[in-house]
Amino acid sequence: MSKSARKWLHLLWIVPVGGLAVGAVMAAKMMYVPADLDLSLSRTTESGLYVSSLEPGISPVAIGSIHSWTVEVTTPDGTPVEDAVISVAGGMPQHGHGLPTSPQVTQSLGEGRYLVEGVKFNMPGWWTLTLSIDGSSGSDEATFNLSL
Amino acid sequence: MLRIGTAIVTAGLALTLLSACAPQGQNSSAPWSAEEIALITALSLSRLPELPPDPSNRVADDPAAAALGELLFSDTRLSSNGEVSCASCHLPERHFQDDLALARGVGETTRRTMPIAGTAYSPWLFWDGRKDSLWSQALGPLESGVEHGTDRTHVARVIAAEYTQAYAELFGPLPDLSKLPAHAAPAGAPDAVEAWETLSEEQKDSVDRVFANAGKAIAAFERTIVPTPTRFDAYADALAGGAATEGLMTEQEELGLKLFIGEGSCVNCHNGPLFTDNHFHNTGVPAVADLPADLGRALAVEQVATDPFNCLGAYSDAGPADCAELKYMTVDGEELVRAFKTPSLRGVAQRPPYMHAGQIGTVTEVLDHYNSAPSAPAGHSELEPLSMSAEELGALEAFLRTLDYDP
Ligand SMILES: [Cu+2]
C-alpha cells in the first residue's frame, strides 16, 4: 500500500473514533468495557449502502495472537457484493491508539466474502474495527465493537 | 412491625448486592469483581500457552540443537578479543542480564541488556524489535562492533573447527571454508568488508548459511529458558480455583495488584502471563544525554523488513504464510517514534536498573515516572499522569515484588 493510501486510512479511522470522542473522554478513567456497548458483528453501514458481517478466524479471540477474519458484504436486500475494495482499521477508543498491526484484505472468497489477514489485539478492553467498503453501490463504512 | 419489615428487606438487598460483587472465595480482604478475577488469572504463569513453533527454524525444538546452542552461548572464541560470549552480558545466574545500565562487550552498547526468559514468545526481538526471530537476533551481537566485535566468516570458521560433528549432524556437512579469509563480512570493520567483496556469491552464501545455522542452534537453547512460578502465581491460581488466598499476599500487595489491573492501567501493556504485550510503546522515558537520539521502533521497521535473515529471507525455513507478523507489521506513524518493547515484569524488582538504556535506577523511581508521566523527548507518550498517593505507589511496588523469583 502506498504511503498516501495509509495516511488516508488513518483519517478514516479518525472519523468513527471522533464520533466516539465524547464517550471516550468520559470513559478515559474507566478501566472496563462500557456495559451498554453494541457488540453485534453484523451491521448496516453508516449510510445504509451495505450490510457487513465479521467472523473471527479464531475462537475465542485471544490477545496477542495474529489471526484472520472473514468479512461478508451484501446489499441491504441480501445480494452478495463481489469485487468490493475493503480496508480495515481500528484501535482502542479509551486509549487513543490504533491496531498494533496493519491488517489487509488478501483474498476474495466469493459470494461477497473476503479474507482479512494480519489482525491482532494486544490489550484487554474495548476495541473497534472499522471496515471501509468501496463496492458496486459506492463507498460506505461500518464500525464494530469488540470486548476482549 | 413495619420498621422490622423494612430492615429485613434492606438487609436482603444488601446481601444480594454483596454477593453480586464478591468472588467465589469470601475469604479475601480485597473482594475481586469477576472482571478483576479474569484479569488477574490471565497473568498467571500457569496460563502460559505451550511455546508456539518457530517455522523459520527447522531445529528450534531439537534437543541436540539446544545442546550445541548452549555451548555457543558461552563460547568466548566467538569474539574479536576472545573474551566475550552471550553469557558475558546475559548471565545465567542473574536471570540472563547483567545489572548494568549499558552493556559492556568489546565496547559499550547504547541500550540495556534484556533478560531472556520467555522472550521466545515474542514475535519481535530487541528493545525496538528490529529482529523477527530468536535465531536472526543472535546474529546481531556477534557482528556488533561493541558486543562480540567479530564477523560471520570468523564464526563459521570456529564452528567448522570446534563443532564439526555436532554441526554436521544437525545441518549436514560443512562447506569448505579453508580458502576463506580469516575475517569477512558485508558490514563492519573496513578490512572485513573489503575481504567480503572478494568472495564469490557462492562463498558468501555458504558463510551466511553456517552463520544462520549457528543462530538457529543458539535460538533452540534460548527457547528452553522460561520463567519460574512466583508468589503472585500461587495467589492467582488459588483465586482461579476458588481456593483460599489468605497468607499468599499481604493486604498491601493485594491493593497494589488492584491498582495494577485497575487505576494504574499497567495491565494495558504489561499483560498476559509474561506481563508484556510484546508490542512497542512510547512511555516518555527520558533520553540519555551522551547517547545519539534513539527513535526506537520508528527506525527498526525498515531494518527488519530488509534484513536478509528475516522470516521471508533465503535462510528462513518458513513459508511466506508463516510470516504474518512481518507481512502485516505497521511500518509508519507517530506511534512508532521512540516506542520500545514492553519488558516482562517477572523478577523485575531483582534486576535494576530499568528502561531501554537503564535511565531509571530503582522501582520506586519507575513508579514516580508513571505517576508524573513526563512528556516524551520525541514522539508522544502514551501515559497519563496517575496522581497516586505515596501509599498507593508503595502498594504497587509491594505488588511488583510478589513477582520476585526464588533466590
Ligand atoms: Cu490500548
Automatic annotation (TrEMBL), chain A:
InterPro entries: YtkA-like_dom. It comes from the Bacteria. It holds the Pfam family YtkA. Residues 67-131 form the YtkA-like domain. This is Auxin-binding protein. It comes from Devosia nitrariae.
UniProtKB/TrEMBL annotation, chain B:
InterPro entries: Cyt_c-like_dom, Cyt_c-like_dom_sf, Cytochrome_c_Peroxidase/MauG, Di-haem_cyt_c_peroxidsae. Its main location: other. Keywords: Heme, Iron, Metal-binding, Oxidoreductase, Signal. The keyword Iron-sulfur does not apply. It comes from the Bacteria. It is found in: Cell envelope. Residues 1-22 form the signal peptide. Residues 251-404 form the Cytochrome c domain. This is Methylamine utilization protein. It comes from Devosia nitrariae. The lineage of its organism: Bacteria, Pseudomonadati, Pseudomonadota, Alphaproteobacteria, Hyphomicrobiales.
